[in-house]
């Protein structure tokens, strides 16, 4: 197996949770900006689906956040490919409860992470991202959503409650193949 440099300076392409308007998209662009690095940000339906398609050449990384559901499983199940090379704190977009046309939504779409913001007694429809929650609401599949202010505005939703920005830890995981000598990092049964 070829030798690939490990470290954030080699990363040029970030992969994270979409669609457009997620906090992870904003964090990915902010990470590139803070480093003064030219690069790309590609959005995926989940961090897990991104890992399935990201090349392990050291130039690609996944961006996640400390509250991403099952981040621990993703990291420890992929020690043979994922190397945490950075973390940083950045405020999220303002998190909001939004609706298309009702004052008290009976059903609310939410990513699992901010589901604690859903009003008590409201039925929750779990979705893969804050932006996806806004889409579900805008298309009438639910009456409300917990989403970012950016996604709410992008989809013409009315904000019922603004919870403000949340200081968040974001993590950067470089995707690298394990050198042949590092096979001890492979999970049991992993292909070599």
UniProtKB/TrEMBL annotation:
Top-level taxonomic group: Bacteria
Lineage: Bacteria, Bacillati, Actinomycetota, Actinomycetes, Pseudonocardiales
Source organism of the structure: Amycolatopsis pithecellobii
UniProt protein name: Bacilysin biosynthesis protein BacA
């Amino acid at each position: 197996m070829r030798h690939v440099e490990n470290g954030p300076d080699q990363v040029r392409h970030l992969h994270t949770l979409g669609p457009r308007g997620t906090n992870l998209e904003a964090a990915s662009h902010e990470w590139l900006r803070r480093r003064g690095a030219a690069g790309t940000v590609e959005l995926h339906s989940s961090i897990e689906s991104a890992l399935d398609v990201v090349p392990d050449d050291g130039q690609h990384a996944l961006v996640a956040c400390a509250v991403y559901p099952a981040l621990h499983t993703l990291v420890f199940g992929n020690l043979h490919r994922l190397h945490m090379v950075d973390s940083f704190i950045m405020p999220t977009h303002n998190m909001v409860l939004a609706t298309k046309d009702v004052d008290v939504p009976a059903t609310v779409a939410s990513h699992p992470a901010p589901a604690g913001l859903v009003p008590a007694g409201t039925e929750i429809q779990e979705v893969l991202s804050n932006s996806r929650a806004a889409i579900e609401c805008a298309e009438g599949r639910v009456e409300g959503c917990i989403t970012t202010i950016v996604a709410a505005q992008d989809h013409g939703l009315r904000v019922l409650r603004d919870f403000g920005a949340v200081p968040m830890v974001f993590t950067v995981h470089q995707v690298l193949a394990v050198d042949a000598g590092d096979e001890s990092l492979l999970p049991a049964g992993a292909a070599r």
